[in-house]
From TrEMBL:
InterPro entries on file: Cadherin (IPR039808), Cadherin-like_dom (IPR002126), Cadherin-like_sf (IPR015919), Cadherin_CS (IPR020894), Cadherin_Y-type_LIR (IPR000233), Catenin-bd_sf (IPR027397)
Function noted in UniProt: Cadherins are calcium-dependent cell adhesion proteins.
Compartments, as annotated in UniProt: Cell junction, Adherens junction; Cell membrane
Organism ancestry: Eukaryota, Metazoa, Chordata, Craniata, Vertebrata
CDD domains found in the cross-reference section: Cadherin_repeat (cd11304)
A Gene Ontology BP annotation from the UniProt entry: adherens junction organization
Stored PROSITE patterns: CADHERIN_1 (PS00232), CADHERIN_2 (PS50268)
Keywords, comma-separated and alphabetical: Calcium, Cell adhesion, Cell junction, Cell membrane, Glycoprotein, Membrane, Metal-binding, Repeat, Signal, Transmembrane, Transmembrane helix
Name of this protein: Cadherin-12
Highest rank taxon of the organism: Eukaryota
Organism: Cyprinus carpio (Common carp)
Transmembrane segments: 591-622
Amino acid sequence: GQTLDLSSIPTDFTLQLVSLGALDLFQTGPLAAGRNGGSRGFQRVKRGWVWNQFFVLEEYMGSDPQYVGKLHTDLDKGDSAVKYTLSGDGAGTIFTIDQITGDIHALRSLDREVKPYYTLRAQAVDIETNRPLEPESEFVIKVQDINDNEPKFLEGPYTASVPEMSPVGTYVMKVTATDADDPTYGNSARVVYSILHGQPYFSVDPKTGVIRTALPNMDREMKELYQVLIQAKDMGGQLGGLAGTTTINITLSDVNDNPPRFSKSIFHLRVPESSAVGSAVGRIKAHDLDIGKNAEVEYNIVPGDGGAMFDITTNEHNQEGIIMLKKPLDYETKKAYTFKVEASNAHLDPRFHNFGPFKDTATVKINVLDVDEPPVFSKPSYAMDVYEDTPQGTIIGAVTAQDLDAGNSPSDLDSFFDIDPVRGTISTNELLDRESIAQHNISVVATKVNNPVLTSKVAVTVHVLDINEFPPELAMPYETFVCESAKVGQVIQVISARDQDLPQAGQKFSFKSPQEGVKTKNFTIRDFGNNTAGVMTLRGGFKRRSQEIYHLPVVIEDGGLQTLSSTGTLTIRVCGCDTDGSLLTCSAEAIFLPVGLSTGALIAILVCIVILLVIVVLYVGVRRQKKKETLMTSKEDIRDNVIHYDDEGGGEEDTHAFDMGTLRNPKVIKENMFRRDVKPELGLCPRRPVASQNSADISNFISLRLQEHEGDTSAPPYDSLATYAYEGEGSVAESLSSIESVKGETEEDYDYLNEWGPRFKTLAGIFGERSESQSDVTSSITTENKH
């Protein structure tokens, strides 16, 4: 039994647990001071209590509660005056105490793996007054471990892999078993590993659980999967220990330790002679016991007899060797082929080179089968040449084929040609024209005599050769001009020619003037020798006034076997040019010659013209919409106004503005004359003025008119000033008209314009010509302007 002795603990004492031993007791206290003297010394105090740690065995299976221990204090004299109390983990439910004796019991079985210890508090009190006899003390009840848990592999079953042919001791994997028992108490948690099933192939380390190979040269091709049973036992593997097991599935991974092998040494194949190039002739296979990339096989034809006719490739899916036809077969030429095929691994492992060569060889014999095939032309295509205009029936070529009865196909041969069905000769059926069709594409069909179903077709191209039948001509209609300031020997135009014929060596042209050897006075043709020629001036000082257009004939000859020639005519215009040869003015046709304005300049001129037209249209529209201002802008304006007439007389033809005869002869009075300074009213007839009897007295006439205006009730209610001007024939100032000034006009000389430079040369020419063509004209115009 275990006893915890509790005695009276002074208030100035402190309890401290310094050891977990079952019966170790320690007590510490304050230092006691001496009663006599000022200094204090150390003094040991007698302990009054006993501290202990209790243990209880786990998995107790007895019928009575398990006795744990006993609490006791020195204050307990055995007279039942002290009562013991218990509190903390499991107090009252798991643990109980006898209040009088202090005995502690466990009411049920405990499991250390669930809770390894319990912390409780004990106190001694007076049984009558419940007054604490000493402070509450804390103690621990520890569950003592027994071997009740076996080792367990938490991650099993396991899967592992190791290469085949591995040496002994090759690491496979490591397994670990856990034991829930207390590793610090006894051997309950000390585990030892052993192998129950899987020997002699594998072994396990008893302490670490590492699994290694135990047998050398394990071959995957013999056995690939191994199942190993591993045991973990506690108690150090001693008798009575608990054990757990797990399974490990170990697979041998493949290595390239096997070469490919043909199932037989000779393969016999048959192939029809009509097989197409690139078609499969047959299949052979070399078997490899390895798997994956270690089983990949490469096939090669060993150079030798018959190997050049065939090729071999590998089928990636089943590693078969596919023999392909490389060249056409002909039974009549060769009936059988024999060659060797070598199979080898694509990926070799240098560790197994000592096993021997990783390749194998087999012989392939191929027999060619005879088939009834269509005729074969001697060429894949034919090309023939024939001159145009060749007489009908001329043979231009022939086609040949083997084992056939040649014939033409009406749908493929056009009407220009015909073919001999036996000899295969092709002849013309009509006259050919290269300029219409330069090349004819026809097809010839050959049919086998004994089997009309078997036919062959070949393409025939007939080139129609050119003969010299068209004369050359100018390449384009040239628009040529010459400057008035052109110099002698100046090339003013470069010309070329064209020909509808097509010579074999290219075109060759020559140019000359028709008067070859005869000296001309204006222009000549200079042949440059490169199928071009130049128009060259023979003199200078061309004048448009003298002659504006010149015509120059040009003779052009080709270089054919039968020389043909033609004569073309160049039209040359005389134009005015700048000092640098730039065109200034010419006829309407010559303005836009190659030396004329550029496209940008033309666009700029057109834009300016459009802008001017828009401005004119806007100006006219504004003038039409503008209203005449009235004489009075406001009816309430009563200020004096001066009416100013700013009308310009229309001359002798103006018969509406004013009647000039009225001023000259006051007796002449027009009817229906309205005043111009006021707006006439409807229905109001104008007053007829009183005519003056004396037409010569203009002053009296004007006075009468003024009086009439002053008495006119239809005039505006304000003063008006009417001004009348009259110029008589006998005026000292004479006529103010400028028309009579032409009487004294003298003929002017415009020769000074020639001195102003080339830019005024054209203007000088215009006025010069006018002065030469005009005769003396005298005119007398008398104009009198009266207002």
